[in-house]
Specification:
By secondary structure, this protein is an alpha+beta fold. α1 (4-13) crosses α2. The chain has two domains: 1-113 and 312-378, Phage tail protein beta-alpha-beta fold (3-Layer(bab) Sandwich); 125-303, Jelly Rolls (Sandwich), CATH 2.60.120.1440. The protein is 21% helix and 37% strand. The protein has a six-stranded mixed barrel with strand order 5-10-13-14-12-11. It is globular and about 70 Å long.
């Protein structure tokens, strides 16, 4: 005799659940361990129900996926990457571990009550510190609106963006440093019109005007670049031992000191990393341990997920996830010696409070102990 929850699951797969029944089912699936016995059945039932769905064009499926992401961005359970046929059939919400996969077919947006926590940590916001050419510093935040003058250079701050006036050949050149702390992000439009989005715990050093033969900036941390084309004046990003030469393109650079490699991922256009020319969709990875550089085909959606408001992982260790969590929520993390070697994958909104992130990980076997802004992984 099937249990109530199994009956709900079957009704959900058949598209017959009410909104209230969907909420009940999702809450049950979030409880630790209770969904394990049904993982195989869920996957088999879903595969059978999707088998008859025809393939659709990439253009149409991409549009559907974009709309679905808007619908589910505030939901605790997160969507896993799936085939285009599955995307065409329904929104898939999932959090994946090697011990099993939770698949939920979602017909309409469902808002879940957030788990209450006496002590919680809010997600990051737009904030940064700007160091001017004379050494003085300014604090920037998500609501600030101000005009900053440096000689002939005028800089406008509007909310989470800093924009320099179109460069002038008569402007005296100084260097500014935009520093984004843990728990922050910021966007700057450089004097040549190039745009840079900085992730948490990152900094960018750049001139107040580009007047030489090249446009040189220096990056630490992670930044997403959209470079204004200028064949006569190539754009160059210096990252430790890596030099990225650009004429006009979009790319992401991840160069945190606590990561295993410096990664440059080309979205569109062309870049040369040291002497290696990349094609769109490729990633140059400079191994910090041995100094060797490797080129891979990258998962673009995963690489730039942070810029679009998500964490996204694909079969990674818990420690890899928590490094990103630590930077975005500005918390310190320590580990005991008994961490279970699971691999996690999924897509999670970066707009959720920390307790929601931990709740999802706990539902898949991770254990945490939070004290203030220190998190112990047990």
């Amino acid at each position: 005799m099937p249990h109530k929850e199994e009956e709900l699951l079957q009704r959900y797969l058949e598209g017959k659940c009410t909104t209230e029944e969907v909420v009940t089912l999702i809450k049950w699936l979030q409880t630790t361990g209770s969904h394990r016995s049904l993982l195989k059945q869920m996957k088999e039932e879903f595969l059978r129900s999707m088998a008859a769905q025809p393939e659709i064009s990439p253009v149409v499926s991409d549009r559907i996926e974009a709309r679905l992401l808007q619908d589910i961005s505030a939901v605790k359970i997160v969507r896993m990457r799936i085939s285009r046929r599955w995307i065409a059939a329904a929104a898939i919400l999932a959090f994946v571990v090697t011990t099993g996969t939770v698949l939920l077919v979602k017909k309409r947006p469902v808002t879940l009550a957030k788990k209450e926590s006496p002590v919680d940590v809010a997600p990051g916001t737009n904030k940064a510190q700007l160091t001017l050419a004379n050494g003085s510093t300014l604090t920037l935040d998500s609501v600030g609106n101000q005009v900053i003058k440096q000689g002939a250079t005028v800089v406008h701050q509007k909310n989470g963006q800093l924009q320099y006036d179109t460069e002038s050949n008569t402007a005296a050149v100084g260097y500014n440093i935009l520093t984004v702390p843990r728990g922050g992000q910021f966007h700057v439009v450089l004097p040549d019109g190039s745009k840079v989005w900085l992730n948490a715990a990152s900094s960018l050093k750049y001139p107040t005007a580009f007047t030489g033969n090249e446009r040189l900036v220096e990056l630490q941390g992670q930044g997403y670049f959209e470079v204004t084309k200028n064949a006569q004046h190539p754009f160059i990003v210096k990252v430790d031992d890596m030099t990225i030469k650009v004429l006009g393109t979009s790319f992401d650079v991840m160069a945190y000191k606590d990561e295993k490699a410096i990664n440059t991922t080309l979205i569109e256009g062309a870049v040369k990393v040291n002497d290696q020319l990349l094609k769109p969709g490729q990633q140059a990875s400079l191994d910090n341990a041995n100094g060797c550089m490797y080129v891979y085909n990258a998962d673009i959606q995963q690489v730039i997920a942070w810029k679009t408001g998500f964490f996204e992982f694909d079969n990674v260790k818990l420690a890899d996830i928590m490094r990103q969590v630590s930077r975005w929520y500005d918390i310190d993390i320590t580990y005991n010696n008994n961490i279970e070697p699971k691999l996690f994958g999924g897509r999670i909104s970066r707009n959720l409070p920390l307790s929601e992130i931990l709740h999802m990980l706990e539902a898949n076997g991770a254990k945490f102990n939070m004290k203030g802004r220190s998190l112990v992984i047990e």
